[in-house]
Structure formats: C-alpha cells, structure tokens
C-alpha cells in the first residue's frame, strides 16, 4: 500500500518495492532484536509494562500514517527519501508488529512447555499470506488509497487492543525467572542460519526485479513472489516432513537452467511462461533455504536468538540487493549469483557422502559458471557503457548490422533508442521513433486548428517530451523550434548527451529538465503554462509503465501546458499491456478525440504503437495522418479508468 503511494513521487519501478523491502527487513531485524533483548533481560511483568507503553505510543503515532506526505523528503535522493518516509509514517507500528511473532512464541513456550512453539511461526505467515492475497484482488480494485489506509489503521488498533489484553491477562502465568536462552552465535549452525535467510531474501528481490523490469511494477507482481516466499516458510515450519531435501534439490538444479534462459532470453518467452518459470526458480530456492532453516532450528529457549539471526540474514539480503549490488554490478548479476550461492550452500559435504556425489555437485557449479561466460560473450556486440542506479540498469551497445554500426540504448532488456554511427543514417531516428510513427507524424506535421497564428508563432513551435531515451525525437526539431525533454533518470541524461548525437545534431533548441515529469510540470505551472504545441509521453522503463503519468489528474495537468489545439502523443507499445482502452476513456473524460497509429515492424525496427489525443481536426485531416490511422486493438472498455486514488493494471493485461 505504501509502496504504491510512493510511485508517483519516484517515477515508478521495481526499485521502489525493493527499497520498501529494505526498510521492512531492517525494521524486522530491529523488532526481533528488541524481542530477544526483552525476553532475555527482563522478567515477564517488566516485559508487559514496557511493551504496553510502546503499543500506546504507536497508537498515538497513527495520525502520521493517515495523511502521509512524501514531498517533505523530496530534496533527498530516492533511497533515503523512501526510508525516511517509511520510518516517520509507519516505523513504530511496524517495529512492534515485527516483534510480535517471537514474543508470542516465547511466551507460549513458557506457558505450554510440552508443545513446540514453532508452528505458530507457520500460522503467523498464513496471516501474512492472507493479507498479501487480499491486496491485489480485494483492496486495490475496490478501495481508494485513502480508504485502504483507514482500514489498515483500524486493523492496527484492533491488534494493539488484543495484544494488550493478552499480556495483562496471561503473562502472570509465566514463571518470573523464565528468560530466553543464549543466541548461540558461536555455534556452527548460526552462520548457516544467517546465510540461508539472506539467500532466500536475495532470491526473492532478484526474481521480483527480473519480473518487473519487463512487466509493470503492479502490486500483483510484487505480491505473488512474496506469497511464495511466505508459503515456503509455512510449509516447512508447519509440517517438517513436507520438506523433502532430495526432491527440492533436483527441482532447484532444473530451475538454475531456467534461470539462465530467462536472464539472457527472457523476452523470447510470453508473459505466462516468464511468470511461471521465475516463480518456479523462486519457490524451489526458498523451499531449500527455508527447509534447511527449519531442519536446523534450536530448542524453544533459543528461538528468539534464532529469529534474530533470521532477521539479520533478511536485512543482509535486502542491503545486498539495494545498496551493494548497484555499486558492484552494472547489470542485475545478483540473480545468477544467488542461484549459485544457494547451490553451494547445499553442498553435500557431510561425513559419509560418497566422493562421486561431491564431484558431481562441483561439476554442476562449474558448468553453470561456464554457461554464464559463454552466454555473456556474443560475437559482433561491443558494450560501450553500462550504469546501474536506483531506477535500474542501463547499457549502451554497438552492434554490426549489415556492415553498419548501430548504437543501442538498452534499458533493462528492452532497446529504448538506436542510432547509426555514420552519416547519413545517423541523422535518422530509429526504432519506435522512426519516420511514419505516431510521434514523428505529430512533430513533423503539426498545424494549429485555424490559420490564425502569426507566421512567427508558427515558426516558433514548442514541444514537450516526457522521457528522453537516446534523444531520437530531437531529429524532428526545426530551426526556431524549442524542445523540452523531461527525464527522471540521470543516467539516461548522461547517455543521451555523451554517447548519442541526436540532441547535438538537432536544428531545434534543446533543453533537458531533470526530474519526474509530472512533478516538474506541476512546479512550472507556478510561472504559467508552457503552451506546448505537442507533448510526447514516452516515459516507460523497459516494458513497465509509471501509472501516475496516465491518471486522469495527470492528463488534466498535461492539457494545462498544451495549447487548446495541441496534440498529446502517448507511446503504448507494450508486450503485456493494452493501454489503448484506458487512453480512449481518458480522452472522453477530457472531451478529446483519440486516434490510434500502429506502425508495423520493419527489418530490425520493432512495431510501434502510438495514441494521439487532440481536437485539432485541421491537423488530423492531413493526408499523412489519415493514411497512418489504424483500427483499435480491442473494443472499448468503459470501466477502465485511472485516477491518483485508484488504478488497477490487472484491467489492461493483454
């Protein structure tokens, strides 16, 4: 819920989700550390007083979550902004929620000495699983964000009351001397607890990143991997016999092969195949990691220290994906590395294991490594530049095509711009922006609705472009034109200005406005409308889309910056989503006409789909536009409409 609320302010993307996961893993560690210290050093009655005080303070802090405001932290870099926002709004409530599991299990073990408390861990994860499944299927489609927050606040109040009642009614039954045992950090098993827990979290986040770099960052695709992650905990802690080590080892080895194929050839698979294979990789890996954790669990007196190490492993995993991996790698290598790490952690090196089995296991690790090296090396391809930051991975590659070198901008696994290095081809836009596509037609052939503007006004056209890419659309700028590019990702700005020449070769005056386009346009309204003739919306990252740029409120903002006879051109090429129905409905809400222009694939250039929104019939009646119009991909869907308070990407899946 909170991650979705953050998307409009941070451009959208899997990075928002992984940043939220880092926060929640860190707070989980803090909560488990608090639970261990509380149970280790204080008698039950003192535990009751301290925990009751913190619960009451958390109830007093709930108004901060009712109307949270991320703009307070807008001056900070994205990751610190996310972490501080979450800390201020939900820090104390979640801290206490995270401490509840080990606290209740510790109290249960002291009250019922002959019953294992570990099954409660499985039951608590069932509750988490129920909440996760309820969000994409019940809460998100049916409730506004403000309503979702209100229900969550009400639920926390009920939780706090129940927790207070339990402590004051039942903690007196515990012996005053009942304390938690040592954390046993010196045991050899402790390091395995830490690494197995970290491996599961890294695999969860790496799979989520892989999924959402080509598929929109909808809560559904955040929730499903996390559901499987929790399900593995439920299965192995509820019934230990459900974990069959040999079976899950075999499935994981098979999944490593699928992981290689997905990493290098993922776009060759359809959406359903990608989803199923990624989830098989995740589930088999988590069953191994968490099955081993369940097999190695200590006696009940050591459970708070055990859970503390599990939480430390989770925080270490989140830290690795969010902070260390972007510093170490320019691509998302952690996905392949964590597969290899889990494989090594399950090394059959116990005493009595036949040497041929150990040799076979070692051969598998060597074969996997050699396969990565072979797939990474491709003849005829030269990597010019690569960078990874909060918004994802970006690379520039030179490829020889029929004797001509072409430079490509790769965002995730999708080409988001290309340019031939030698003239005259270097002066021609390629890919989704080539001549004849919707954006090219709008920029080349724009005419005002009536010939009432002066000659000077007609010569001084002004274009806004949301999303820079390689800067290919700059080729359509003419002398005296002004083109304002809005770009959120600083790495894209660096690449477009230093590794492509579209911007420097343009005849127009080109300006780049760094930052989220919607926020920048809103801020610019203070000094007045930009009065664009054409506004191009192409701010996709790989195949994912920033939902906040397609809501009704966003559309209204765009038209405050457009002439009344202007044109809004929206790029809708997508492997998995059909956005045409949404844009038709948004156009109707604004009293505009929507037109679909589909340009077929040609050679190495992919198919390009654009939607133009305008009431300018003089512009649309030109022969070049009329000949380019295409029938809509699907029938009208009146129910599909997005606002800032309600958007459901499940409605537009192909």
List the helices and strands and how they pair.
Blueprint: H1 2-10, H2 14-41, H3 44-61, H4 63-66, H5 78-111, H6 119-142, H7 145-170, H8 188-212, H9 219-238, H10 245-265, H11 271-295, H12 303-328, H13 334-345, H14 355-376, E1 381-389, E2 392-401, E3 404-411, E4 414-420, H15 438-445, H16 455-459, E5 462-466, E6 482-487, H17 490-498, H18 502-505, E7 509-514, H19 517-524, E8 532-537, H20 552-560, E9 562-571, H21 580-589, E10 593-599, E11 608-614, H22 617-620, H23 623-628
Parallel strand pairs: 5-6, 5-8, 6-7, 8-9
Antiparallel strand pairs: 1-2, 2-3, 3-4, 9-11, 10-11
Helix pairs in contact: 2-5, 2-8, 2-12, 3-5, 3-7, 6-9, 8-9, 8-11, 8-12, 8-13, 9-11, 10-11, 10-13, 10-14, 13-14
Keywords, separated by commas or semicolons:
2 domains, 7-stranded mixed β-sheet, Rossmann fold, Fused MFS/spermidine synthase, SAM-dependent_MTases_sf, alpha/beta, 654 residues, membrane, 23 helices, 4-stranded antiparallel β-sheet
N-C termini distance: 24 Å
Which percent range fits the helix content?
Answer: 40-55%
The number of helical segments is 23
Give the CATH topology of the largest domain. Growth Hormone, Chain: A
Give the percentage of residues in beta strands: 5-15%
Number of strands: 11
Low-confidence stretches: none
Class inferred from helices and paired strands = alpha/beta
How many domain modules? 2
CATH-defined architecture of the largest domain: Up-down Bundle
> What's the story with the biggest beta sheet?
7 strands, mixed
Q: What shape does the CA trace take?
A: globular
Mean pLDDT: 85
Radius of gyration: 28 Å
Give the strand order of the largest sheet, numbering strands 1, 2, ... along the chain.
7-6-5-8-9-11-10
CATH domain class name of the largest domain:
Mainly Alpha
What's the CATH H-level homologous superfamily of the largest domain? MFS general substrate transporter like domains
